Amino acid sequence: MYIVTAEEMYKIDRETIQTMGLDGKILMENAGREASREIKKRITKEDKTVILIGGGNNGGDGFVIARVLEEAGYAIKVIQVAPDEKITGDAARHKKIYRQFGGQVADYNEGTADTVLSEADVIIDAMLGIGVRGGLRGDILTVTRQVNKQDAYVISIDIPTGLPAEEGFADFQAIEADATIMIGAVKQSAVCQQTSSYYGEWIVADIGFPEKLFQAHTKKRLWTTADFQEAFPKRGVNSHKGDHGKGLIIGGSEPMPGSVLMTTKAALRTGAGLLTTASVKNVISMIAGNNPEAMYIGASETDGCITGIDNIDLSGFDAIAVGVGLGRKEETAKGIFPALLKYKGPIVIDADGLFHLRAYAADFKLRQAPLILTPHPGELAALMDISVSDLLMEPFRHSSDFAKRLNCYLVLKGKHTIITDPDGNQTVESSGNPGLAKGGSGDVLTGMILATVMQSKSIFAGINNACFLHGKSADLLVQEEHSEQDLLAGDVIQGIPKAIRTFSS
């Protein structure tokens, strides 16, 4: 499932019509019919439904929806918010068809519309599509404000009126939808923190755009259950522990022993074949009894923090995770990072490791082996020397720029986690719930990424699979036995087996 900006969607639409020969009126008919199918799942024939129609393709979709719903026996009122001269091309053709079917179109009048909207059970917003530039004006602005005051269930077509389709916009007024039926692809603003709430529940309607055009015009997509199932490794009957990765976790300090325990547990639950955790002696004594399946190595230490790993032969490991519970002492970084720079396998860096990375970033860029960074927005903003608000305004652009600049895989954690590879390909993993907004959740994800990277043919697929399982584990737990308030990071580890069973086949 692809994610697009307005410009990318326009290119795909234009080439579908001009190059592939699929008529625009057919695409509009497909869009209206597919949207109607989803609308019927959410409304009843007894509902008083008002369809607000503007100019352009979005309005044309609205006329098709009105015709399909009326023919199916739904109670529909259509209000045309745009003047007649704005209803042109394919939209004008479908308006004519709607009227030939007996449909009635009322022109917008502020007073009358206010009464009709206040009596509506359902409002379908087909006023403006993805081409919005600048603030709303005139009747569209007035209607948007009227709609947002109502208690009706609001369904937007393709995008809530007034909302930009892509990241980078802060000054706008838009419909606050309860559901949005996107046409053809996910709009980028649906998976950005600043704008996602305007969409409500969202669904994507497939109306016949060719797959190859999406592949040609966007590097962004959702990581879906189908993607997970295709990429999740299947174990051979005669496989052994060495086939599933020999991993090393470096982390933990006396003030923070639990973090490295959770990373270790999560890596093993996610299928790591052999796992060793390097930490200070007191941490090892505290956690080893709770996780006997792992092996342990005592690192050099001072005052309960790691200060060296010279006693560890890093070459014997398939991948390394570093940073959880590490602490921020300068001696810690000096004792670990120079050795990591010589290591020739994948490295996952999280938490305090990201704090120390700033001094070594230029050196890590020169490594040929994969580097995987897993920051939350505050950590990435610090690495990029920008504000968190600037980062969240354009998370896709900043993530792509940073991943290319540092030649790394980047996991920008959040409700819509953005995973970027060194070439700028991006996926979004949107499962999970607010129960994950607790200490330790990131430590669990680090262990899961370590395990999946060692087991997958593709580093990028392995990272995506770990993020998918992390979110799905939390979702299943909240659905069945926990609340978002009481869910703990340790619970997410215990939920991994069910998430794998549920989604891997």
TrEMBL record:
This is Bifunctional NAD(P)H-hydrate repair enzyme. Keywords: ATP-binding, Isomerase, Lyase, Metal-binding, Multifunctional enzyme, NAD, NADP, Nucleotide-binding, Potassium. InterPro entries: Carbohydrate_kinase_pred_CS, CARKD, Nnr, Ribokinase-like, YjeF_N_dom, YjeF_N_dom_sf. GO terms for biological process: metabolite repair; nicotinamide nucleotide metabolic process. Belongs to the NnrD/CARKD family. In the C-terminal section; belongs to the NnrD/CARKD family. Its EC number is 4.2.1.136, 5.1.99.6. The gene is nnr. It catalyses: (6S)-NADHX + ADP = AMP + phosphate + NADH + H(+); (6S)-NADPHX + ADP = AMP + phosphate + NADPH + H(+); (6R)-NADHX = (6S)-NADHX; (6R)-NADPHX = (6S)-NADPHX. GO terms for molecular function: ADP-dependent NAD(P)H-hydrate dehydratase activity; ATP binding; metal ion binding; NAD(P)HX epimerase activity. Residues 9-215 form the YjeF N-terminal domain. It comes from Oceanobacillus oncorhynchi.
